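pipeline stage [seq->struct] | target=Xenobiotic compound monooxygenase, DszA family | organism=Podospora didyma | residues=507
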Amino acid sequence: MTESSQDTPTAATPDLGNGKTRILLNAFDMSTLGHLSPGQWKNPVDKSATKRRLEYWIELAKLLERGGINALFLADTYGGYDTYEGSLDNCIRRAAQWPITDPTIPISAMAAVTKNLAFAITASTSFEPPFLLAKRFSTLDHFTRGRIGWNIVTSWKKSAFKAIGLDNPIEHDERYKQADEYLRLLYKLWEGSWADDAVFPDPANDSYIDPSKVRTIRHQGKYFSLDAKHIVDPSPQRTPFLFQAGTSSAGSEFAATHAEAIFVSAHSPSVLRPKIDKIRALAAAQGRDPRSIKVFATFTPIIGRTDEEAQAKHAGLKKYASTIGGLVLFSGWTGIDISKIPLDQEITAADSHEAHKVRSILDSFTTTSKEIPQWTPRVVAEHASIGGLGPVAVGSPQTVADELERWAREADVDGFNLGYVTTPGTFEEVVDLLVPELRRRGLYPELEEVSEEEALTAREKIYGKGQSGLRADHVGSSYKYDVYKEDEPYVKEETKEVVVENGVTSE
């Protein structure tokens, strides 16, 4: 099935805008107690505290597989949130994304009990050599039979940089320049180092791999140097399916170049739509099909069999919410120490005195809309402790499905990263109540029994069967083995000395 055939409207599937006829759903989780709804660990039905046991992840994977969920999208972070009151204490006390374990470790166990569920793992371009990340993701792509995606982030927390021995984070736009080179070096390893037929077992001649078909990558860039062959043979996708988070100016340019899917967050479709339009326009300017970039928005559903039941659930969940935990996350994301602002004073971008923050989230939390006409600490406190970054929809499966359709039309998103309030409770509601309603509307595919060999890769699940590798219009395709050409070494620009003498400037 090609992408165009998937997106062709039929009588049974309504047009959601721009030819979209389906809604893609990812489950959004994090290997920590307090992801986007801190405090729910106190709720007797919540199992967040069991995430340090492998059984949690195995059972979650089985549940998502049963619901035909596209992917399990796993957030990650490398340091605590210390902007609120200038301390980590409340981050730790409220378990606001603390403690947190490595999200890559349980992937193999989850892959072993599923055939269709894909996995998108957050990893940073700021903290490890590209060669090591390339090896890890190639390994995971092999073990999952091509069901791996990478959510590319550039890290910004001072606490995280101090943990690896650096006093301050790299400046925002410079991080994206570094990340661009990082990705191009990875493409060289994943796409350009091994020929498709390099692995050619020949027992008679005691030969398993033809060394003449494994290229040495010699990269000399501004930020990275490497002289090596990729140590892992080509995996089913070679390059993992590429997500990217962040819609700042630099982030949008990066996404338009490298991302196959973008993870966005906003409280209103009207706030989000201009950012998405900009990224698609930037992609088109680079010769990419702008519709090939799939956009996933944060969305937290609270679902009951009726609207009244859902409202009652919501009221019960509020009893366990950690208001301070939510404010800790808000302050960390935006660089605003909200503890210093009067409860009903409007929050503006000028309140952000911390240079290191998530600029797109700051913009989202200081841009008003008809849904939220004014941001104050009181309003933030109400929103941040349940659902965190994005909208919360409370209602029956029909009500929540209506809201998903509205966002798909008005914001031009292709799908959603569905956050939870309690786990696995929210995900059970999605699988047992929401997915059947979306299928009834013709917006979500029915489950099909397939063998492991027939199962689709993460990229095929988005673009259609047969598209396991990068699309031809993606920049990474220019590094494929058969067309590979090494970049010229980076040459540092010499600083010109400027001399002013008798009012005359010379160099």
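stage status: PASS
auto-comment: Residues 1-11 have pLDDT under 50 and may be disordered. The first helix runs from residue 3 to 6.
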